[in-house]
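This week, study the protein below.
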Amino acid sequence: MKLIKSSSYIRFLQFLDSPDRMNPGKKLDSTEEQILNYVSLGYAQGEELLVGDLIHLDHLGSQATLHGRLKNLVAMGYVQLIEDKNDARKKAVMPTVKARKYYDTLSTCLEKAFKNS
């Protein structure tokens, strides 16, 4: 079997794997990652995202699935829900410090992958 030359992306995946081995625990599933990415991008662009906005992302799953994954992200400390002062039915979704650290780790892994090319 002929080995494929290691690309930057493969090295990036290898760097991502090493913190997971050192810190075993509940990892984000792909739907949770996509929701967190959506929330973090919106936050970075100054958009206020509501729970209702997120559970209507039907390309990611059913409303029940998305609501459950959002609850998981809250429980794991990646996002927080901020209740609207004028309408308690509305809750804004915001990334936490833990989410920012998660993206800092991804950035570091990406930088290492390119540095080693």
Strands lie at 49-50, 79-83, 91-95. The chain has a mean pLDDT of 85. The first strand starts at residue 49 and ends at 50.
